[in-house]
Write a structure and sequence with these properties.
Blueprint (H helix, E strand, L loop, with lengths): L7 H13 L14 H10 L6 H9 L2 H4 L4 H8 L1 H9 L14 H14 L2 H25 L12 H14 L7 H14 L2
């Protein structure tokens, strides 16, 4: 018999994320979007069983990709989880309203991630490894034609990004999740 575990927070986050992403598809994949946040949460679970980090992992795209706001998350899950999600959310403008380019956004994200807490990095590795697994699967099937589904279609730019993420996540190098991420980055983009 399994030991009882209080999964109330994680269960609530799964239901919330499923509803938020309802009816949406993972770009170019043909399957429900919620599969990605669930995979991100499963990856985080290989590092920690902390309910707040598992919840943040499954919620990580709700603000970026749905109508959910950080205030909604604060109300439902508290400030800590909302802040973890905020740290994983791609913000497209500067505080003064200037629109950032894709490369500026990704550089800022890598810089912020490098300076972030271990908790933020744990949530991030769930997202980034899930993305890298999808890229690797598709690259093995499509080769360089894969890059055409992205807004930025240059493989070298994606290599810059994922190698930068790998550098920013070095604190997690003792985890299997980071080691898999590192191997996939090397496989797809080279050293």
């Amino acid at each position: 018999m399994n030991t009882p575990l209080d999964t109330t927070l994680v269960d609530k986050a799964i239901v919330f994320a499923t509803r938020a992403h309802q009816g949406t598809e993972r770009r170019g994949k043909g399957f429900p979007y919620i599969v990605h946040p669930l995979e991100a949460m499963a990856i985080v679970a290989t590092i920690t069983n902390a309910p707040d980090l598992l919840a943040a992992a499954v919620l990580h795209d709700t603000v970026e990709d749905t109508d959910v706001t950080l205030d909604d998350l604060k109300q439902e899950f508290g400030e800590h989880i909302a802040n973890l999600v905020a740290d994983e959310t791609d913000v497209k403008h500067t505080p003064d309203g200037k629109k950032l380019t894709w490369k500026e956004r990704k550089q800022r994200d890598m810089d912020n991630l490098k300076a972030a807490s271990r908790e933020v990095k744990i949530v991030a590795i769930g997202d980034k490894l899930s993305n890298m697994r999808a890229i690797a699967r598709d690259y093995r099937q499509k080769g360089d034609a894969l890059w055409q589904i992205f807004r930025v279609k240059d493989k070298a730019t994606h290599a810059w990004r994922y190698k930068g993420l790998r550098d920013a996540l070095q604190e997690l190098k003792d985890t299997f999740a980071f080691q898999e991420f590192d191997q996939l980055v090397e496989e797809i983009f080279g050293e």
